[in-house]
Design brief:
Layout (H helix, E strand, L loop, with lengths): L5 H24 L8 E6 L2 E6 L11 E5 H6 L5 H5 L5 E5 L7 E5 L7 E5 L2 E2 L18 E8 L16 E7 L1 E4 L5 E10 L3 E11 L4 E12 L4 E6 L2 E6 L5 E13 L5 E16 L11 E18 L4 E19 L7 E22 L2 E19 L11 E14 L3 E15 L9 E12 L7 E12 L3 H5 L11 E14 L7 E21 L4 E23 L5 E15 L18 E10 L4 E9 L2 E2 L9 E2 L2 E14 L2 E10 L7 E3 L2 E2 L4 E9 L1
Parallel strand pairs: 6-9
Antiparallel strand pairs: 1-2, 2-10, 3-8, 4-5, 6-7, 8-9, 11-12, 11-38, 12-13, 13-16, 14-15, 16-17, 17-18, 18-19, 19-20, 20-21, 21-22, 22-23, 23-24, 24-25, 25-26, 26-27, 27-28, 28-29, 29-30, 30-31, 31-34, 32-33, 34-35, 35-38, 36-37
Length: about 675
């Protein structure tokens, strides 16, 4: 029997009315580009218009950015590989091109980081984790990571609920020089059966309208060799069950109206068929036989209007449908196979209003409404397949204030969240209400010097996922939201620096995080159960450095690096053997570095990323220790002007020392491999 709460519906409509009305007002006028200003870069017949790179050193909160040039020049393999170069970031990589890759910023876990795609949050209400491997790098203009509340207060309310935001921003592909259309073709190939063609087309429909279409296919067998060590026994094995076939297509429409308002629309479809590489152990190096098929349909867009008065409006909408089919072959299941099918949908709308009465003061308000649904089936466990098919309604409203001065800035946000759920059968959790503030402040002591100090405070929370609440026997409807308090202080500086350098930028940030009501799975009398039992204290420091060294009229050396020192301790139970031990898979020391030399004829780059020893269990004892690692990569690329376009050729040697390591125990990473690519813009 379906259970529908009338009081919940009334409250839902009351709280969501503002979001619906404001969203309807905005979308009735129409929108496009949502960034403040643009810049262009000509490549013969192609114009790539990008979002302006954020002012990293002027940001009152820690902000790190990788632009398209860095991503391509340094030879990053995928989004997960690029993101783990950021300071304070841990990426759990389960090995191989098809392995799951999730982000954890400052040890808060993947659920405390929002992942956005062109300004709209990517959702996964079922598991709460976003797989970074699903984002291709070919069409990205930049990747940015913000810790705490962003300095840009003209944002959806939904983003204020998270401790950090990882943003993927795509390029705007447009023809120039009077040409009505342009093309880009990219071909990549490499070790372990890797092949990745990418095609892009851009066309001006009118002086104010632009259309771009792209398609990306990626495949690999992923059967890379690795060394299996168990005590004195050492054998050379080959990774099994790692084949990947993925296809992504996307279309974008941008239109600027005569009144300077703008509209953007995006539609994408992706499909993947992946063999999931399981854990490898002695006598079973092949791991488990698992397979995952997924389909994603996405439609999103936005409208923005700048009035002559100090008012500015923005509206966003999104519809996302995700289907997944998981299958595991094992003799322990009836019929030798266990199958799970999940279909989730998300309907999302956001309305934002910015008011700037004077140049230094700004106020903003945002109201978001999100509806999530999930339908699941488990086979052959049909007697357990009568799931609740839950529906979640989320209303979020934020109010922000900002004061900007030449020497200091102050930004504050207050977020109100209300969540209610319904189900086709069974009970649902009580309604949830939450108020969470954030505050950041930056100070520049001397206007003649680029030295700034900054502090931040933020409350963030993680709402239980549908798996946490409803998944078979382990779900717990009494779960509370996991809360986190972030404290941070740091400094940024830039200048000419040393006599042989033309530019140096340095950031140093210290932080302390306190997590309460952490959602963890703990054993009960007969089964594991999700519970609010965890308490974690995290403190650490992040350091980043960038440097430019002229080598002549036409050559330049650029260096960049990051380092993190971090302690993330479990303080749940003072009597436990693991009290104040480091969290599993959290290294105390980690970092990355990159060196790039731009010659007139080519650019040579070298990158390294490494982490110290970690522990795979709550108890930090020798038997659970995972050794540290360092992965080195070199790349060489050159651009050529030809009669019919611009060519870009690149070769990469990845993990050139053939380091044998694992980020997650029993999930070995690939050893030495190569990759070559050719790109033509015409």
């Amino acid at each position: 029997m379906a259970i529908c709460s009338i009081s919940k519906n009334r409250f839902y409509w009351r709280r969501g009315a503002l979001g619906l009305l404001l969203g309807a007002l905005l979308l009735s006028e129409a929108k496009a580009q949502v960034w403040d200003s643009v810049q262009t870069r000509e490549l013969q017949t192609v114009n790539v218009t990008e979002k302006r790179k954020p002012a990293v050193l002027r940001s009152p909160v820690p902000l790190q950015v990788l632009d398209a040039g860095q991503i391509r020049r340094l030879g990053y393999q995928d989004a997960g590989d690029a993101v783990r170069r950021f300071a304070g970031v841990g990426v759990r990589d389960y090995g191989g091109i098809g392995g799951l890759k999730t982000i954890s910023v400052r040890s808060l876990g993947p659920h405390h980081t929002a992942v956005t795609y062109d300004g709209v949050a990517v959702g996964n209400v079922q598991a709460g984790q976003i797989d970074l491997g699903r984002f291709p790098l070919d069409n990205l203009a930049q990747i940015s990571l913000t810790v705490g509340q962003s300095a840009d207060i003209f944002q959806p309310a939904r983003l204020a609920a998270f401790g950090s935001v990882l943003a993927f921003q795509t390029e705007r592909f447009a023809p120039v020089n009077g040409s009505g259309q342009c093309w880009a073709l990219n071909l990549k190939a490499g070790s372990f059966g890797f092949a990745n063609p990418f095609l892009r087309y851009g066309r001006r429909l009118s002086e104010r309208a632009l259309l771009s279409v792209e398609s990306n296919y990626r495949r690999a067998d992923g059967r890379y060799p690795f060394t299996l060590v168990n005590g004195d026994f050492v054998s050379r094995e080959k990774r099994q069950n790692t084949a990947v076939n993925e296809w992504n297509s996307e279309a974008n429409l941008y239109h600027t109206f005569r009144d300077s308002s703008s509209l953007s629309l995006k539609a994408s479809y992706s499909r993947s068929d992946r063999e999931l590489p399981g854990s490898v152990i002695l006598y079973n190096p092949a791991g488990r036989r698992e397979r995952l098929r997924e389909q994603h349909v996405l439609v999103q867009g936005g409208y923005e209007k700048q009035y002559e008065s100090p008012w500015r409006l923005k509206g966003l909408f999104k519809y996302n449908r995700a289907y997944s089919e998981y299958r595991e072959h094992d003799a322990k299941y009836e019929g030798g196979v266990q199958e799970e099918k999940h279909r989730q949908q998300e309907f999302y709308g956001s309305g934002m209003l910015l008011f700037t009465p004077v140049g230094r003061i700004a106020f903003s308000g945002a109201s978001d409404l999100t509806v999530n649904t999930l339908h699941s089936g488990f086979y052959p466990l049909r007697e357990q397949a009568a799931l609740t098919h839950p529906v979640r309604y989320t209303s979020q409203t934020s109010l922000s204030f900002q004061y900007l001065h030449e020497r200091f800035s102050l930004t504050g946000t207050l977020l109100s969240t209300w969540i209610t759920e319904q189900a086709a059968s069974g009970e649902t959790p009580d309604d949830r209400y939450r108020f969470t503030p954030s505050l950041s402040f930056s100070f520049r002591p001397w206007t003649s010097r680029s030295l700034r100090f900054r502090i931040l405070y933020k409350q963030a929370y993680r709402v239980p996922t549908f798996n946490d609440l409803y998944y078979l026997r382990i779900g717990n409807l009494k779960l509370k939201a996991e809360s986190a308090r972030e404290y941070g202080a740091g400094a940024t500086w830039s200048g000419k620096g040393l006599p042989f350098t033309s530019y140096i930028a340095l950031t140093v940030d210290g932080y302390y995080n306190n997590v309460r009501d952490k959602i963890t799975a703990i054993p009960t009398t007969y089964i594991w159960k999700m519970q609010n039992t965890g308490k974690v204290r995290i403190w650490g420091a992040d350091l980043t450095l960038k440097m430019l060294v002229p080598l002549g009229d036409r050559s330049e050396l650029s260096l960049s690096g990051s380092y993190t020192r971090q302690r993330a301790e479990d303080v749940t139970d003072p009597s436990a053997s693991y009290y104040k031990h480091q969290l599993p898979y959290t290294p105390e020391h980690s970092g990355s570095g990159a060196v790039s030399v731009a010659f007139p004829w080519a650019t040579l780059s070298y990158t390294v990323i490494g982490a110290g020893e970690r522990y795979v269990n709550k108890e930090n004892v020798a038997m659970y220790r995972l050794p540290g690692y360092g992965e080195h990569t070199i790349s060489l690329h050159r651009e050529l002007e030809a009669k019919y376009g611009t060519w870009r050729l690149q070769a990469e040697l990845i993990n050139l020392t053939d380091e044998q390591y694992a980020i997650i125990q029993y999930y070995p990473m690939p050893g030495r491999s190569f990759r070559v690519s050719a790109t033509c813009l015409f």
